[in-house]
Write a structure and sequence with these properties.
five-stranded mixed β-sheet, 13 strands, 279 residues
Length: 279
């Protein structure tokens, strides 16, 4: 039984199929975590969702910002953008089934691998959060997304404020901070104030900001974290931090990591992707 993490697919189903073939993926034997942004910008988002649904528990997705955008668009909380490629989901006869399945996926997951914990999110983790906090706060959002009033939340989900976490936050403001950290975060200040304007490479951090994983004293420093979202960062392989968005939709690669006996034992497997859109 093998354990894999795969970076942002973004509707590039042919690349995902090619990568799963390359790793000799078996639904009866292996576990694959997709690190968010299953859909949008690529040519066949519906096929990606159907592939994941057919695989059952062998493919375990994490929700990214584009996946939440699909839900918001489907439930009239947000308009389609000019670069969106969601029509083959929204106009499909099984659209409702796909959306229902997506609503029940997770913003963060933890996998116990040979007595070691692997935490997976789409974007980032705030410095004051422990790994247990990440799972607990993500579950707060899950309860809303899976509940009867989820459409109301989708209308209030967007916005850049509050930009920092406080334990006494409540209501939709609290949920918005959680969603923003887990699906949008790249840079923040040393005190954990999030920035949503910059998407440069980590080496080009704006003044006063740093990549979320470089914040001194981050409480998840000893937890191995895998994430996607940051295509200008590319493949990042640090002892406790793995970045796996290698720009598939922009003509880069779709990347998988296969873990060995320990989380430190890693093999990078990549397939080249045709460019679906210009960056």
């Amino acid at each position: 039984m093998a354990l894999y993490c795969i970076g942002d697919v973004q509707g590039c189903d042919a690349a995902l199929e090619k990568l799963l073939t390359e790793i000799d993926f078996s639904v009866s034997r292996d576990t694959v975590y997709l690190l968010g942004d299953l859909v949008n910008r690529g040519p066949d988002s519906a096929a990606v969702l159907r592939r994941c649904m057919a695989a059952g528990d062998a493919i375990r997705p994490i929700l990214g910002n584009h996946d939440l955008h699909l839900l918001a668009t489907a439930y009239a909380a947000r308009p389609c953008g000019r670069r969106d490629t969601l029509a083959n989901i929204l106009e499909a006869p099984d659209c409702g089934e796909m959306l229902q399945w997506l609503r029940h996926q997770s913003l963060a997951r933890m996998h116990r691998h040979n007595e070691q914990d692997l935490l997976m999110v789409h974007a980032g983790v705030l410095p004051d959060w422990t790994a247990a906090d990440v799972i607990a706060y993500a579950d707060e959002v899950h309860q809303v997304l899976r509940g009867a009033a989820f459409a109301n939340f989708l209308h209030d989900m967007y916005g850049n404020t509050p930009a920092a976490w406080h334990n006494d936050l409540s209501g939709h403001a609290r949920l918005r901070v959680i969603v923003n950290a887990l699906t949008r975060l790249r840079f923040c200040s040393a005190d954990g104030t999030m920035d949503f304007e910059s998407s440069e490479a980590a080496s080009l951090a704006p003044a006063g900001l740093m990549p979320w994983f470089d914040v001194p004293g981050r409480r998840t420093q000893q937890t191995t974290i895998a994430f996607g979202h940051w295509s200008t960062l590319g493949w990042l392989n640090q002892s406790h931090v793995l970045g796996l968005d290698t720009g598939c939709v922009w003509g880069g690669c779709l990347s998988a990591v296969r873990f060995g006996r320990t989380l430190a034992e890693r093999e990078l497997i990549q397939v080249q992707c045709p460019q679906a859109q210009q960056p």
